[in-house]
């Protein structure tokens, strides 16, 4: 191999063996932590950068500028180090110390945005500042993951197809957590075209309004938005939406570590809550795949830290049976996401999104 970037993709599937009961469906975790940057975000980050290079929008010696809660920024920092680009990442106070340290280790310049937007989050203020820097810095490129259709195409052409081949088509449901919408957008298009029997289950954070509802602050990093991203271009392709509370997601992370030997981030825990719900509903002899987006070691100071959880008034442990009951009681937020759509097309103009000028490649 010529560079570390050639190791992106081809991540393994791990079957859970200890938490589930005999009448549950099988749950397989797709371990995206084995990507070189430690998360699923390596895939769209590399795809977008290579597309920009091919079109001449990113030239040698250029600068990559992006808004990220952590993982996408780490991926870009790694890619920039491997390819020789300057990288500037706009993060917020929810970004973990480990993620900040990783971006710095790869040589990225990190700016922490502390001004909240009108939803109590930081997404809009981060994006607005990233776009401002892009206008001011010559020879710069904005991957613009929230608005860039290449984000979803990376998962359509690569991740979803890879999963289908690994399972030889033997999949009954896929559980995906949602933020920028690239993953759920690409997966839902792929499976509804090539394997329409596969149920697509989206998982959001309580407090996010990607699929409508009441907006408020939440702790889960790397999940949620205060609007429906355009990367989810067809909500009718999503079968169910669940919203998982912070505490449930964190408790599930800790159970996976203690009972399966698997450490994942908060989104993995959130996805697993919904996956366990589905496993109890669908029953034995079914196969559910849950995307494990990143490495749990990044959250040792937070999710896996008793003191941090205690300070927030959150529980540090439930028994597997207690968590199983919590998962079973989880109710769908929506079984017809079109009815709860929260598209805000004015944001593209308001935030001066550079990717609105992208030449639209045909979505498959």
TrEMBL record:
Cofactor (UniProt): pyridoxal 5'-phosphate
GO molecular function: transferase activity, transferring alkyl or aryl (other than methyl) groups
InterPro entries: Cys_Synth/Cystath_Beta-Synth, P-phosphate_BS, TrpB-like_PALP, TrpB-like_PALP_sf
Keyword Amino-acid biosynthesis: no
Keywords, in A-Z order: Pyridoxal phosphate
Source taxon at top rank: Bacteria
Keyword Protein biosynthesis: no
Gene Ontology biological process terms, A to Z: cysteine biosynthetic process from serine
Residue stretches making up the Tryptophan synthase beta chain-like PALP domain: 6-292
Family to which this protein belongs: Belongs to the cysteine synthase/cystathionine beta-synthase family.
The protein's name: Cysteine synthase
